[in-house]
Amino acid sequence: MKHPSWTITIIAVLGLGLTLSAAYWQFKRADHKQKIESRFVVMQTKEPLNLNKQFDPFMELEFQRVEAYGILDASYKMILDNRIRRGQAGYEVLVPLSINESDVVILVNLGWIPRGRKLGQLPDIEVPRSPVFVTGTAVKPGLGALELSDVTIEGDIWQNLDLARYRSMHSIAVLDYVVQGTLIDGVTTKFEQLWSKPSFGINTHLSYAGQWMLFSLLIIFFYIYYGFIKQRDA
To answer: Fewest beta carbons less than 10 Å away: which of 11, 66, 181, 188?
Structure first.
């Protein structure tokens, strides 16, 4: 009985190993993202953590609802450009919050504000100099968008949220988190503070895993069909 050559067999085994490994990796990533999503759901049901009283530098704050009392310093604000909502361009404005009676500084995202009619017109932002009470959700900034230009910072305008670069520029040791503000006392500027649920991409990983599994099945099918059935009928 004829059978596939050793060369074809080795290629098929390598291809099968590659596609199955890729599928396994995608399933693992989906499982990891599922755990992150579950953490998000749990954290959103907990009572807000008071950073003035309960902060620990080794504490995991991602997705934790937090509250803090401190001073906002608008002189070190970060204005994220080209943030699109409902098809309209605008800005997200971040300001460092120095938490009272501690050395802790964390960036607070005050929210979204639409861009002015004139290109490059910055919003008027009124931030009180007295201590304010802030509530929101602590998140870790994701990867920034592709930077097509070397000019990524112009004054207070930033194209991407880069905490390492921010620390270097202003010599402020901000935490690795940003508070997405939901209530900020004393800030009279009208910001939109509706934050969408993070996209964890679980279905994307499962879709990719399914595609790799399909490639594995195709390799097995073609190997058997052309290696055995087709040669038997020849």
So the answer is: 188
Q: What digits encode the pLDDT tens for the residues 176-190?
A: 999 999 988 888 788
Which is nearest to 220 in space by CA: 5, 26, 9, 21? 9
Contacts of 219 (CB under 8 A, 6+ apart): 12, 15, 16, 19
Question: Which residue, 103, 43, 67, is CA-closest to 183?
Answer: 67
Is 0.85 topped by the overall pTM? no
Same-domain check for residues 77 and 130 = yes
Q: What is the full DSSP assignment across 72-106? A: E-GGG-EEEEEEEETTEEEEEEEEEEEETTSS-EE
Q: Which residues fall within 8 angstroms of residue 72, CB to CB, at 6 or more apart?
A: 95, 96, 97, 108, 127, 128, 132, 184, 187
Pairwise CA distance, residues 215 & 232, whole Å: 25
Tell me: do 17 and 102 sit in the same domain.
no
Collect all residues with Cβ–Cβ distance below 8 Å to 107 and sequence separation of at least 6: 78, 94, 95, 96, 97, 163, 166, 174, 175, 177, 178, 179
Domain that holds residue 140: 64-184
Residue 25 covered by a domain: yes
Distances (CA, A) of 207 to 16, 36, 134, 200: 18, 18, 40, 14
Q: Does one domain contain both 71 and 161?
A: yes
The position carrying tokens 């040669």 is: 231
pLDDT in tens, 204-233: 999 999 999 999 999 999 998 888 877 776
